[in-house]
UniProtKB/TrEMBL annotation:
Record-annotated P-type ATPase C-terminal domain positions: 494-732
Gene field: Atp9b
Protein's organism: Oreotrochilus melanogaster
Stated name of the protein: Phospholipid-transporting ATPase
Entry binding sites for ATP: 59-61, 182, 224, 248, 359-361, 441, 447, 470-471
Family: Belongs to the cation transport ATPase (P-type) (TC 3.A.3) family. Type IV subfamily.
Bias-annotated ranges (Polar residues): 104-117
Amino acid sequence: LILTFDYAMIFLCSLRVNLDMGKAAYGWMIMKDDNIPGTVVRTSTIPEELGRLVYLLTDKTGTLTQNEMIFKRLHLGTVSYGTDTMDEIQTHIINSYSQVHSQNSGSSMSATPSRKAQWSAPKVRKSVSSRIHEAVKAIALCHNVTPVYESRAGVSGETEYAEVDQDFSDENRTYQASSPDEVALVQWTESVGLTLVSRDLTSMQLKTPGGHILTYYILQIFPFTSESKRMGIIVRDESSGEITFYMKGADVAMSTIVQYNDWLEEELVTEFKNGLTFFTVQLYHTKLTKSGFVFVQSRYNQAKLSIHDRNLKVAAVVESLEREMELLCLTGVEDQLQADVRPTLEMLRNAGIKIWMLTGDKLETATCIAKSSHLVSRTQDIHIFRPVSTRGEAHLELNAFRRKHDCALVISGDSLEVCLKYYEHEFVELACQCPAVVCCRCSPTQKAHIVKLLQHHTGKRTCAIGDGGNDVSMIQAADCGIGIEGKEGKQASLAADFSITQFKHIGRLLMVHGRNSYKRSASLGQFVMHRGLIISTMQAVFSSVFYFASVPLYQGFLMVGYATIYTMFPVFSLVLDQDVKPEMALLYPELYKDLTKGRSLSFKTFLIWVLISIYQGGILMYGALLLFESEFVHVVAISFTALILTELLMVALTIRTWHWLMVVAEFLSLGCYVASLAFLNEYFGIGRVSFGAFLDVAFITTVTFLWKVSAITVVSCLPLYILKYLKRKFSPPSYSKLTS
């Protein structure tokens, strides 16, 4: 019993070594895959976790999108301009400003009369031209963007004359702002001819297509806040003295302050239904008199100096300016999706992986991206969780959500906090039934908390993917963390278990490498256990025959060789095995669902391999004792030879797809065993009474020895081959239908 236990412990240690070596091999294969270049495996302990994920929690900006804003649409009500018609806007701007400056150079008239002269043209033409003129000017003025010029001297140059050394050419100009969509708007106005060339605290200058400089004085700025969802600016034209209040903001915040029109609501509904990736921004303006501005300015300064209810008083002053504003245009700025995001999300969804998007952006933006990326299908219902702040409101909203079926959930971070505080179990249970969940305005702490909730309430494997420092807590809390090297730095990729360069690589990482790593580790682990249990069973049978005498069956180098050169190469070659080709795994992601059920490695499969080991160990030992009763002195050579052949045949039985290295490993191990018979003959005996007395070369080359060893091996392996054939014929696995 002690010897049997020692054998089992030796091969359990071998199991750990083989699995660690296998995981290192999986990581090497992932990093060498040319289809996912730049992928880095930062841990060698959990590659098989990629093969049984159920929940994928992803960031939005920089993960699903490129974090690059591009101006896509300008809608004026009667006419809409897209990317293919922007040259028409450029033509209007060039003609408009050329007429203004030509009239100014021919007379002493100011800019305002010039525009009036321009508007005296035929009505249809002046309507479109003037509206484009005002819309583009509003976009160029209503923002917080600052143009920046690099110094010629560079970083090492003298800073005393930095302003003199600056290059003010268009090629050297870049824009800086807190929001990339504002930069996209200013870059678009530059592309159509109206360029922001300088800005300070009190003024900004625009350059027209003709090279003339227009100066506007900044009288007041009303910054963007998460509550108001809009920003405003009051400017005065230096040439005309005209004071104008411009405002822009999200559609939900601006729709109530606009003058009546019959196209705004219809256009917004159309964009939302089509799932466009546009961040809709509306621009308004209203004219102010000098006295009116002075009055507003005094009220605004008093409100800012108030001790009590300062925010409410400031908001009241701004709202007094927002009455009956004229809608100038509707703009669409697109945060481009990363390459192949839609097919990748579709693949993951077909694989049975539930996707949750956790973002810090506003609800409208998150919903728009969810629809455009097909995280939420266009035909699928969306339940937008109303803002709740009390337990009663959360209870009512949960009841309303419970009555809906097969709909995606969109919820804000504040409402999520309230629901988790009072109804944690109920909310998680309902959310897990949704095909997709979008959580907006989430803090990094909330993202990590959601990951831990899913792990605690479902017990399923989770994966988190992000690209910024605010995603690190979520990535580290998940069972498997994936970081993307993006524009926000390498914090996420360095903190993650796996680092990729594009979101689309996650499809191959999970469907191919995750599947293979899990399947291979399951086969390798179970086979190493079988290798240890079969020799332990043989030792137990041998000891029982000799009245439990403490005599080892195999000694010295035989045990070392059995665990290494005789069986190591074929067994470890299982890390090259695959049930389906990578192309097939990507084409049929439904195969991934079987992995999440855990059928490849479970108590059932473990017990099956234990029974196989006991059966084969018993057959090998009892067969050697029965068939070689008259040549009992050769029982070690007989049983050990049959054991090696059985192991090699069992490896062949386990392999699903042959690789040329597997064939080499089989014949190499067999050759090493045959070659070792010449110089390990003293170990093929019981008790080792005298050197070289227990291996008769003439005996092992006889036909009797060969057919009896073959008979023992066939009896131990043939039933398993028959059972495997019958199982594949009457209950084939899902992948076998595709390979056939």
